Amino acid sequence: MGKNLMEEQVRSSIAAYIEHLSAIEDKDNVDMRWPVQVMVANIINEALFGYRYKHEECQPLMKYVEDFNYMVDHLADSKGMMLGMGFPFLTKLPIVGWYTFGAFKSAMAKINEYIVENVER
Q1: What are the GO MF terms of this UniProt record (predicted)?
Q2: Of 14, 36, 103, 106, which has the most beta carbons under 10 Å away?
Q3: DSSP designation for 31
Q4: For residues 40 and 23, what is the distance between their CA atoms, to the nearest angstrom?
């Protein structure tokens, strides 16, 4: 009584993270980016969907993270998106529309597939 569920999820995820790091044999050549991202994404995933991935089986989660990062990086650099926001009629043109909002909508649909699958699960 009085324990915070989110705190328990974070502690549990950190314990799994430390266990994963301890199991790595070549500790001199560890890319810390993915283990940290798996830990953080698992905390969010567990809060939203009620389950967590094991580090060895987290490919769907990492694919989601990679796709999301790709979309955000390209959205920030997209001059076509800025044009589409400034001149909405451009989004209706066949080829220009793809470079203003079409590519963004396609990337979002791909990202949303993960969310829909996990909500249904």
Answers
A1: heme binding; iron ion binding; monooxygenase activity; oxidoreductase activity, acting on paired donors, with incorporation or reduction of molecular oxygen
A2: 103
A3: -
A4: 19
